[in-house]
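Dataset card, provenance and construction

Sequences and ligand SMILES were collected as paired inputs. For each pair, a complete structure of the chain with the small molecule in place was predicted and serialized as structure tokens. The example below shows a pair involving magnesium ion. Curators did not alter the output after generation; any descriptive sentences attached to a record were derived from the structure itself.
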Amino acid sequence: MSAVEAGVRDVTSRPRRLSTRFLRSELGLVFGRRRNQVGLVVLIGPPVLISIAVKSSASRPGRGAPDFFSSITENGLFVALAALTIEMALFLPLAVAAVSGDSVAGEASTGTLRYLLTVPVDRLRLLAVKYAGIVAFAFAATLVVTAAGVLMGVVLFGGGNLTLLSGSQIGFGAGLLRVLAAALYLGCGFAALGAVGLFVSTLTEQPIGATLATVIFSAASLIADSIPQVSWVHPYLITHNWTAFGDLFRSPIAWTGIEHGLYSAAGYIVVFFLAAWARFSTKDVTS
Amino acid sequence: MTGAAVTTSGLTKKFGHQVAVDGVDLEVPLGSVYGFLGPNGSGKTTTIRMVLGLIVPTAGEVQLLGNPLGRIGESLPRVGALVEGPAFHLYLSGRDNLRRLDAADLRADPATSATRIDSALDRVGLLAAATKRYRAYSLGMRQRLAIAASLLTPKELLVLDEPTNGLDPQGTREVRHLVASLADEGSTVLVSSHLLSEIEQVCTHVGVMHVGRLVAQGPVSEIGGDARPRARVETDQPQVAARIMTELGVRDVRVDHGSAVGELDGTAPEKIVAGCVQQGLAVTGFRVETPSLEDTFVALTGEGFDVSG
Ligand SMILES: Nc1ncnc2c1ncn2[C@@H]1O[C@H](COP(=O)(O)OP(=O)(O)OP(=O)(O)O)[C@@H](O)[C@H]1O
Ligand SMILES: [Mg+2]
């Protein structure tokens, strides 16, 4: 034993405790990937379509249209909110599921996982960096939709004071701030979905399978949320509080739903990250 | 040369009911070039994965550069590894793939990253293709990139699982030179292959796997030295030659392709020739063959083509 240690030269420097190199590399991988870039571009579609459609149809949208639609012609900021509402159900969860489902399973299926682990990268650090990449993408996706909506809306319908759902008015700057807050709030929800995706991704070597499972999880949650007979389960559903971002446009702001949403997201993140860690820390990497 | 770079005791891995690795006691001495041999499916890669901490053994112990199973991670920075072929991101260039691996290494100095990456690429002759996407690499180029990845920082131990797989003869020779030069620099090299002839010249030690078990292990001289030289008589009547050889005390005499072959067990070779000529046989050729490591390998693992399943 001591002979072994004596024969060992010290060729590597001490490990640095903190380095952002791996994280930056991960972000480069997520955002540099063509598929993800195309995904972000596709997300711009709905805000562009909504604004053009509303602008070109002379009449205002009929009754029964989503809340924010009817207000679009009054203030362009509502395009962003309408777009978020529409994409919240499928497009945004799909984008987050694609990246999170791919996170670990993708590296496993290409075999790069074994080379990262022998570098070595600590398994917990690997999961943390992977999750950081997912969170960054979740927020980026939400902000892309929001930014496209704000831009199209203000160009086509103008800005000005924002009439809140409760009738009172706030200035354009304050309105913009609330739109941003709404986007960040939704980003937290998608980050929670990303934690679910990360967990599923540690279960399989098939990224597509992990992505599908994550989308199904989100869709099943939406469906369950619309069935009154299982109302007891509603508060625990991952999607249940997502629509609460609308509460930011009341006066005064109704914080209860938002608060629940943030707690729920934090709970999902903790539980599923720990589950991913429990699974991944001892997993045989045979790919 | 004291101590061992890798030791395992009773190392066992079961996949369901199948025992892939069965009670392996590996000993790779520091400073050695250890040839890890065995037919397809004999458990080489599985053993290597356990040594590197990628999979958890069902039973047994591992010591990697002085650290036991639970602390293998502490040794890994000093270990370069190529496991079961190359694996990289398809849409990144060779250089960008190495950048990613270097970025993941907490101990690698970012200031020297670019030079280290380029010198690793240069060492495997891949500098000219550094900016090409991995997707467009040929099999041999991919294999070279994987070797380059294991050379990004100085290593005390290199674990190379089938490093010559997919390489052309020129590339195979280069890998052999590379292994030799790494050994000259003081690194220990554990190199696995099912083609013994490719690494025979550079190995100081060999271990032979067969159906999950380590059937032989030791310095090359000892492993090869076990087998006795064989005499081969070429003639038009090999059956008669075989009978004469047996009478003279040659063991295990077989007839094959117009010649008789047997193990010399103290019998003087010239007596065989004389004996055959006396009996009026037309001897067209006579050879004394010292079995190569390859023959020992085949003797240990059987000549069958079937994989160990
Ligand atoms: N993930 C796995 N699940 C089930 N069986 C496995 C798994 N990995 C390996 N095996 C089995 O374990 C045995 C040993 O495989 P291993 O890959 O270690 O062989 P090898 O000696 O490296 O062969 P080769 O020369 O072909 O690379 C084989 O029978 C193989 O089928
Ligand atoms: Mg193998």
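Derived descriptions for this record:
The first helix of chain A runs from residue 2 to 6.
The longest strand of chain A covers residues 162-163.
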